[in-house]
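Section 5: illustrative case.
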């Protein structure tokens, strides 16, 4: 139960005084709901007006009970104050409204139960003027009629609620624009405003006195008491635990034991409380804290959520973003050997300063939690990853990840940076841009320990990105291959930390794979220059044979070298100086092979991509000029 204890502590330490100005933590016994209709009353409960809410302002905090907070099924429990028309409107059936299937035999039951609960609350010592106004209006029983008069609901030919619009699209009533495609207007949700002279707060969801009145009233209800496994005290226990953690329509729960006929707890325990007993206030605060954290700082991948936070509410770096997003600034990639070296130093300095900035706010002993959530079914949610760390340990591991996987990344014309890629980008690099959602989630889960625990990178991910980056002709767009190449280099470098690879060209590295990568980059540079001179735009031989070169470098290099002969002849006349430099460089690299390394025809590892990428960067003009800006002639130096 460590996770729920940490969330409970987070709520207690942050409730009411969030430092960053974000939304406040939601009070207990409340939930959020997507609302379509707003009804405005006066203090005596008389109807004033009604409007259809835009989707950007429809998310509303409402009071809820344990049963209604996670309601589901054919007979959903009613909310205490705001709810759908079938609960709040006495004339709902008169205008052709359809109740949910569980109430079909007694269609007046939803309204009767809602009204009885509202009357009981108003009659208690926890009443409120807004509550009394709403009760009077609900008792009058003409809500649907008023909504018809206000043109919020439209009548059909029989004067009933129009449930499907078949007219012109431009004339579609507002209510049909805000409900879901599977809904009808009679399923709309209602919230209240009560306007009172001298009171600037008319909304029920912003009235602190009304919020406190419901909390006090609900806590006074008779309830089961027992041992709370979180606090170790005798408390009022929770029977049902909250849902709606990831979004307003999320029905999945972290704690649920409503299956009395199956094996949720049966077989080991007689009663579900023996498996997990948590106090009502504790579970409410813990789930509200998790909902708040997910909304403001979680990394999302469909239904998969990863959230990291400081129990004390301090700002922490997101472990699931790229270095570009972490630093919040783009470090331009300067080409040329010296330029890359300068950028590498600037990157390291920028990263250390960013981590040091977080360290000034976070105490070294501050409790940090990283939690991953996902659901296999609509009703059950699982904690797929959970770690508790201290502030200094967490920051060290974030810095380690971004340093060990740092490489020059090219994600497009406007997204070039030095650093580590995000897990979602790694998944696309390993399995393609159209990667299946389940596979993407699996990759994200496997990378979490690599970031948070400094675990080794999965070997199959490194090899998969290497193979895809080597298959250059398999990419539809050049930028996509450039992105995959940078990620493949980052992963291979991160998986081989003991070799201490540098982002700049290492002319003193004599390993076979690295040298072969350099040869490929030089051959590509020679042919691409010759193609530019001839105004041709096709792929080079090196690009077309890159996959074959990765599998059989020695035999493929002979093909590439022979293909260079006519291009060298073309360059000798107009680009003699350039060709001389390239020939000297080729001879230097060829002479760097040791023994029979050059003649071995076994497959190359991802190291050849490092050599290829670094050599290619070093051969580019340091001022990043395009080939069209090159000098018309070259001179021999």
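Designed sequence:
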């Amino acid at each position: 139960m460590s996770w729920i204890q940490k969330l409970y502590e987070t709520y207690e330490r942050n409730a009411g005084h969030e430092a960053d100005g974000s939304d406040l933590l939601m009070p207990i016994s409340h939930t959020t709901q997507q609302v379509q209709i707003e009804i405005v009353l006066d203090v005596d409960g008389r109807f004033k007006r009604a409007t259809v809410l835009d989707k950007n302002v429809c998310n509303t905090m409402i009071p809820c009970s344990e049963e209604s907070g996670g309601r589901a099924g054919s007979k959903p429990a009613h909310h205490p104050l705001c709810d759908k028309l079938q609960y709040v409107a006495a004339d709902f059936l008169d205008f052709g409204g359809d109740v949910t299937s569980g109430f079909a035999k007694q269609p007046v039951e939803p309204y009767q139960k809602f009204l009885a609960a509202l009357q009981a609350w108003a009659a208690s010592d926890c009443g409120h003027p807004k509550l009394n106004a709403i009760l009077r209006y609900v008792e009058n029983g003409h809500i649907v009629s008023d909504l018809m008069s206000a043109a919020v609901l439209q009548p059909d030919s029989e004067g009933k609620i129009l449930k499907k619009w078949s007219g012109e699209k431009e004339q579609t009533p507002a209510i049909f624009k805000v409900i879901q495609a599977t809904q009808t207007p009679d399923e709309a949700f209602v919230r209240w405003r009560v306007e009172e002279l001298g009171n600037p707060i008319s909304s029920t969801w912003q009235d602190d006195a009304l919020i406190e009145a419901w909390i006090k009233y609900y806590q006074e209800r008779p309830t089961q008491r027992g041992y709370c496994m979180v606090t170790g005290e005798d408390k009022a226990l929770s029977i049902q635990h909250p849902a709606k953690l990831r979004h307003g329509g999320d029905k999945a729960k972290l704690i649920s034991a409503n299956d009395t006929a199956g094996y949720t707890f049966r077989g080991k325990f007689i009663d579900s409380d023996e498996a997990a007993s948590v106090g009502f206030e504790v579970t409410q605060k813990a789930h509200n804290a998790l909902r708040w954290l997910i909304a403001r700082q979680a990394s999302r991948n469909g239904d998969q959520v990863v959230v990291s936070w400081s129990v004390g509410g301090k700002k922490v770096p997101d472990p699931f973003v790229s270095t570009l997003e972490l630093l919040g600034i783009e470090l331009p990639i300067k080409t040329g050997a010296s330029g890359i070296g300068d950028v590498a130093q600037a990157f390291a300095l920028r990263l250390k300063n960013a981590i040091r900035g977080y360290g000034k706010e976070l105490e070294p002993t501050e409790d940090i939690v990283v939690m991953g959530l996902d659901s296999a079914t609509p009703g059950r949610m699982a904690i797929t990853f959970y770690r508790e760390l201290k502030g200094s340990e967490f920051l060290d591991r974030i810095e380690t990840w971004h340093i060990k996987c740092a490489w020059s990344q090219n994600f497009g014309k406007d997204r070039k940076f030095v650093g580590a890629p995000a897990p979602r980008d790694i998944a696309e690099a390993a399995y393609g841009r159209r990667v299946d959602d389940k596979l993407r989630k699996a990759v994200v889960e496997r990378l979490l320990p690599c970031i948070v625990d400094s675990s080794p990178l999965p070997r199959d991910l490194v090899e998969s990105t290497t193979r895809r980056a080597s298959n250059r002709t398999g990419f539809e767009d050049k930028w996509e291959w450039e992105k995959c190449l940078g990620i493949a280099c980052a992963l291979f470098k991160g998986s081989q930390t003991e070799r201490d690879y540098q982002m700049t060209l290492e002319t003193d590295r004599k390993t076979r794979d690295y040298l072969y990568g350099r040869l490929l980059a030089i051959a590509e540079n020679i042919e691409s220059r010759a193609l530019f001179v001839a105004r041709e735009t096709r792929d080079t031989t090196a690009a077309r044979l890159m996959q074959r070169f990765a599998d059989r470098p020695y035999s493929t290099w002979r093909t590439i070298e022979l293909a260079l002969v006519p291009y060298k002849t073309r360059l000798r006349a107009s680009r003699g100086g350039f060709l001389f430099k390239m020939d000297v460089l080729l001879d230097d690299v060829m002479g760097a092979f040791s023994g029979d390394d050059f003649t071995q025809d076994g497959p190359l590892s991802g190291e050849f991509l490092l050599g290829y990428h670094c050599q290619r960067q070093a051969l580019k003009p340091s001022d990043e000029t395009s080939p069209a800006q090159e000098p018309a002639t070259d001179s021999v130096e």
